[in-house]
Amino acid sequence: MSASSLSDGIAVIRTFVKTAPTTPGVYRMLDKNGDVLYVGKAKNIQKRVTSYTQVARLNNRLQRMVSTTKSMVFVTTRTEAEALLLEASLIKRFKPTFNVLLKDDKSFPYILLRTDHDWPQITKHRGARRHKGHYFGPFASAGAVNRTMNTLQKVFQLRSCSDNTLETRTRVCLLYQIKRCSGPCVGKVKDGEYSDMVSETRAFLEGRNTDIQKKFADAMQASSDEMEYETAAVFRDRLNALTQIQSHQTIVNAMVDEADVIAAAKVGGQVGIQLFFFRAGQNWGHRAYFPKHDKGDDVSSVLTAFVAQFYDNKPAPKQILLSHSLEDQALLATALSERMERKVRIDVPARGKKYDTVREAERNAKEAVERKLAETASQTKLLEGVAEKFDLDGPPSRIEIYDNSHIQGSNAVGGMVVAGPDGFTKNSYRKFNIKDTDLSPGDDFGMMREVMSRRFSRLLKEDEDRSRGHWPDLLVIDGGRGQLSSVMETLEELGVNDVTVVAISKGPDRNAGREQFHMPDRGTFTMPLNDPVLYYLQRLRDEAHRFAIGSHRARRKADVKKSPLDGVPGIGPKRKKALLHHFGSAKAVLGADVRDIASVDGISRAIAQKIYDHFHE
Questions:
Q1: Each residue of 89-108: pLDDT tens digit?
Q2: By the number of CB atoms within 10 A of the CB, which of 48, 195, 286, 511 ranks highest?
Q3: To the nearest 10°, the Cα dihedral for 183, 186, 190, 194?
Q4: How far is CA 348 from CA 209, 321, 327, 352, in A?
């Protein structure tokens, strides 16, 4: 950052201050490419933006941001609370360089108790809520959902199968035989009994466990008194399963009915956040997060950004318990309450059981950061080893690994995976459906040329000056000298001559550990069998292979589902159904003459001729 660039940035901001609104809203700072550098909110946009022109009050990070600012965008809102929510939404959308960023923001799984069928189904759910029913969650992971679902099947025995399976079954399934389903598909349970099971399941997921336990205990005793010992044993097993899941809830009755516990800890300049979900008096799992932030950011500011971004697209619980106070705690509570249309409390407990729970979450956060730093140190050492092996100027920050997958040239797919200091970057993975129809079946060299051409042509177009961090420091190709030559020729044609390329082949007898490495200006070489860098490169190669073959299988599976009739002009779902119903299969349609096709309901002579011509060109 030079003094002139800082002065230029301040001049740009002063120009925009003149037209900046004095109302609440959100402002964006943009660089020369139009990319968002920073998103901020303010009660008075003009007053807030003016502060960036006072250099003496800016730290080094903000000075760097101002020096690269070339434009600004303002959006006004009715209230400061609306501005706070909009800020969080825009940060997640644009991922600005100078904001604290929540990474790995995946949706959480729920348990759905459907009520849109005569025999309600219980199932795992993730995504939009399209089905009518009761949603319970969120759960921290699929594993937490599976454990709860397993217990629900043992205790309440509701069906988990699809509607189609329910309607087409003619005999009991395995779940019924192992006492995980009551068998409504074949009439093994009466309507009233099943309705009671549905009510009991809902009561359990809402936290009314004591009533259910008492009901099961009374039913077991009554059956025993009447010497119906098999029935008593059923209630005994259901009671034991219910007691077992409660014994796994390590913090029961210490919490309110519904709360999220969010604790943060900072170790070695990195803030880690641990989030526990409590619903219906039960612990429904936890998850660790490591937001991207500047080393100088304090815990409170990182936690403030995390909470606002986390609840941008997720329902907030009735209470959020924190380890540290937030910068805009009251404002955020107001914003979330307005969004949820009910009161949302944000508290920092100072004593009691809630305080103990938050401290436990904080301890977990600290340990998670320590593990993350240890893994990062190990990863850094490996990347230093990679740089040494391949004569790089320094540890690579972005490695791209490529592999192809196909079966005799059909459904050919090229896969690209990305790795760096933080491990695999899965949101940067890309697949390339091979489109060149002139390639010979199984032409791996031609496929690699197409993948490289498409990848780097787009990269040159979108990030020619390499300012966005999308350019690789190292390319790793799964293959030998032939694949390497194809890649180098393609890169040379595109004018890319400063990216290191390495090809990995299996070596003699395709034995793992005997891999051979090929580079353009260097002879073939190997690495010692116990070299950690070799193991690391094997993992990279294997991940690329896994991704490529998975993409190929998905494409092949989609092709299998296609019908020859899908490509016929004028044939929609209704006519296709009529043809298949009449002839029995698509193959029979292909062998039929025009007169036979025209005899199908809804198929005219002209349409029949089109169908015949399509298959007999």
A1: 999 999 999 999 987 667 88
A2: 286
A3: 30
A4: 29, 6, 13, 12
Question: CA-to-CA distance for 218 and 225, rounded, in angstroms?
Answer: 10
**Cα 207 from chain centre:** 29
155 vs 245: CA distance, rounded Å: 10
CB 520, CB 494: distance < 8 Å: no
Radius of gyration of the chain measured on its C-alpha atoms? 31
pTM: 0.75
Q: In what order do the strands lie in the sheet with 71-76?
A: 36-42, 25-30, 71-76
Residue 177 phi/psi, 5° resolution?
-65, -30
The dihedrals phi and psi of 114, each to the nearest 5 degrees, come to -75, 145
Query: What is the end-to-end Cα distance of the chain in Å, rounded?
Result: 67
DSSP H stretches of helix in 429-512: 444-462, 481-494
> Beta-carbon neighbour count of residue 525 at 10 Å?
10
The pair of three-digit structure tokens given for residue 23, joined into one six-digit string: 């109302």
**DSSP assignments along 346-389, one per residue:** EE---SHHHHHHHHHHHHHHHHHHHHHHHHHHHHHHHHHHHHHH
Long-range CB contact pairs, 355-359, < 8 A, 24+: 356/254, 357/251, 357/254, 357/255, 357/261, 357/276, 357/321, 358/261, 358/263, 358/321, 358/322, 358/323, 359/263, 359/323
Which residues are CB-neighbours of 616 under 8 A, at least 6 positions away? none
For 292-332, write each residue's pLDDT tens digit.
Answer: 998 888 999 999 999 999 998 888 999 999 999 998 899 99
Rounded distance, CA 114 to CA 166, Å? 14
DSSP state of 38: E
* pLDDT, tens digit (0-9, with 9 covering 90-100), for 41-96: 999 999 999 999 998 888 888 999 999 999 999 999 999 999 999 999 999 999 99
CA distances from 557 to 127, 430, 444, 562 (A): 23, 19, 22, 9
H or E element at residue 11 = helix 3-17
Name the β-bridge partners of 271. Answer: 266
CA atoms of 550 and 544, how far apart (whole Å): 10
Q: How far apart are CA 478 and CA 451, in angstroms?
A: 13
| Residue for token pair 């949101």 | 427
pLDDT (0 to 100) of residue 437: 77
